[in-house]
UniProtKB/TrEMBL annotation:
Pfam families: CEMIP_beta-hel, G8. Residues 31-43, 441-467 have a biased composition (Polar residues). This is G8 domain-containing protein. It comes from Meiothermus taiwanensis WR-220. It is found in: Cell membrane. Residues 1-21 form the signal peptide. Residues 21-43, 440-470 are annotated as: Disordered.
Amino acid sequence: MIRWLGLLIIVILAACNTDSAGPLTHDGPNPSRTGVWSDPSTWPSGQLPRAGEVVVIPRNLAVVLDMNPPPLKGLTINGVLRFDNRDLELSADWIMVHGKLEVGTPSQPFRNRAVITLTGNNPNEDQMGMGTKVLGVMGGILDLHGEPRKGWTQLAQTAPAGATQITVLDASGWRVGDRIVLASTDYNPRQAEVRTIQAISGNTITLDAPLRYPHFGEVTYGVDQRAEVGLLSRNILIRGDDSSSSSGFGGHIMAMMGSIMRVSGVELYRMGQRNLLARYPIHWHLMGNAAGQYIKHSSIHESFNRCVTIHGTSGVEVVGNVAYNTLGHCYFLEDGAESKNRLEGNLGILTRKPDPAKGEQGVIPTDKTPATFWITHPDNIVRNNVAAGSDHTGFWYALPENPTGPSATTSIWPRRTPLGEFSGNVAHSNWDGLMVDRGPNKNTLESETTYYNPRTNPGNPSNNDSENPPVLAEFKNFTAYKNRNNAAWLRGINHKVTGARLADNAIGVTFASQESTLEDSLIVGDSENKGFPENWEFRGVDGRSLPRPWAAGSGGPIADNFPIRGFEFYDGKVGFRNVQFINFQPLRIHNAQGSHTTTREASAMSYLRFTAFAIDSRNFAQGARFTNAKPVYLPPRPEPTPEEIAEDKNADGYRGAVFVDIDGSVGGRPGHTIVLNTPFLLDTNCEIRTDWNAGICNYSYGRLYIYNQSGGNIAPVSLSRNDGSHPVFRMWGKPQEGANTEFGATVIKGRSYTLSLTGDVPNKLRLRFDDSAPGEFINLAIPYSGEPFIYRDYWIDNRNKLPRAASRADFDNSTGDRYWAEGGTLWVKLVVRNQPGRDWAVLDICRNDLCR
């Protein structure tokens, strides 16, 4: 993520420098001589290494470590260093591997106790571009293979607060003295707790201290909310020294190009260096294809900077690991060029944002909203992982337009690359569970709105489906619970979420997308997991915690009673098929003292609250099933205040909220439309559901967009329906820089409307009628002086210029190919033409010929 040119040169030279390392194969160098560390004759000097020395193992020598050496200044391994089968400790400011460091092998894991402590505390010291306190692999091989042990399991039953025993699904191989961590099962990720095993009998574990919080241990309403329990202890320990805790300057492992790194059964503790790029607990750096390299069944905890980093590297396996209490993005794919990696079966607990009071800043801007899994390229396997508590996001597909940093290239397009695999993952106790949006800006690395549009040929900029066919991105079998905001938010096109199991989230699924669906899924509003509210929190009268428990406003006594919803409509065309909704009912809530009580609304479906942006009138629901669930609640939204208008919080889009109930599974009337309860969208033929704040109407709705292409402020723009009631809809415009020049309204197809602007009609006014089928139309009357020049279908030339109708009757009987002007009013008709793929009609109204 920084200018790595100097470091890159060092890496290339080191990889080519045959004087510093022996011949390297997949198994490492083949020295001509072997000796044990404790034998003076092993060493070229004829004496044992002494404290504070820099020790060099020459390339022709293989040393078996059979004793605990004194603390070293540094250790360079050009040959081989192999740990003997006994308990051993090695301490050095830094270790550099050009040959091979071996503690166990994949076929013969190390089964004793090995501790490597990194002690370098001079931040200005720099070993081959990798700083200090480093276990660096520069063209060599690092093989660390501890005892194979089960990394994590789940509770078999709920553990209440105060419990000193827990029962888990599988504690095989765990022992007295092991350190374990129990994940939070509430909204607060800091309800995770570390304990030591005091006794163990089968799958029942006795803890060294009572639990402060309850940890849920059940499958409730079909959603698995059993707390994860992770094993932190491993028999191979790589750690920063004691001073790391106060300084935040821990150890780090870094492998450069031409190296091989294979790690399993290892504990990484007090690793990572606070606020420093490229100083992470374990880090593949610009290695290209690293197939066959991995970190498996290991633990990383109390890290000061990430947990696992894959940078400019592909083919790495990250499998079955446990990370706890790590700072910034945890499992981290850095630049956006990293592909074909496999992240499977990993657990991340308590991913922390930087705390400035502790001198923590993070290393890129988005560390302030950290993700347990930060994925910058979609073509990776992300399978059966658990993001169990982050200060912000569980799984974040943060896709840059092109790779950044030293991987920068315009030949890779992550935002257009098909999804590799996302399946079986779990996110709980975060702000957002799954985020597919807000990738890094190429210049600042700040997050920006990201549109994920996977295509057959990502490098082809064409969005023409016949030239560059779209590829469906399917997110499979995702479980998410107790997330304070979204279980899943996806922005883009051609997304599908299937087999989701969601519970206790403020919002289930939101597609800020087109052509995207939720299918064959289950969403629970309030489950049997009531959580454990902190003393200051508002809570349900049944004692349950809330996703938004804080008071509204500064010191306000009433909770921010955010209405929870299962499926949230937005943008579009989006919708769902075959989804079951359970337990979405209004809930009485109060503060801890019970002195302030209000109601939190709930519904299976709603719209993104109070958005000013456009929504698609063809959004749909199909195959809905309800158990103790209110189907719809659309919070009322009156016209905006002047302050809201000034802040672009006008809610133009929300006040046009509709969706189609395709099969009648929502409102009992197939093909009808569910409509926000506002006079402009309703009439006496609609059935009003007051508890939904919505109506059910047998009308087809479309969208009208008004564009001021001459600039300047014409807001508010008013649209009135030309019928007996003449309801009016006022628009203040889509938020954008400068004056708002784009306005939108939901309209009933086939009706007539009057359009009024503030001030004069601009020299060029574009009208677009959208979300409609061939032959569908609306009529518009516009106050207008003079003779207009009108063109359709974006073609400003005489071939598409509309003539004046011979009469009003001629206009009324037309198919949108002429206009009528009379008495200071211009009449136009927007009719969708019968052409393949056409669902829109466009007219440009100009004050001079050809809009010149």
